[in-house]
User: Fold this.
Amino acid sequence: MTDLKLLYVDDEADIREVATFSLELDPGIEVRAADGGAEAFAMLDRDAWRPDVVLLDVMMPDMDGPAVLARLRERGDLDGAPVIFITARAQAEERARLLGFGAADVITKPFDPMTLAQDVRAILAR
Assistant:
């Protein structure tokens, strides 16, 4: 039974595929994936499905993660759902910058696909 609806937005197809597969190993997580902000918004416009959490890549070509987050909030798509940024930049300054946008936390790439679902659940449990 699904207890967590997760929207994963990342422009890198390989990473998106691995992350989606690893997240779906947790039978309680339903994942919908988008290759960028435009696809995420189109997906949310198509039906009434809303995520319980958003996993959002920071560096994407059409719109970066913070811009996607701002637009999701502006459109009312989040309904209080936390956002977790994913970034290849592990510096403390970048983490602080991303948390400043109101993210619940930041996961650094490369992440461990075997523990990604646990990591997301641990962040949400805080």
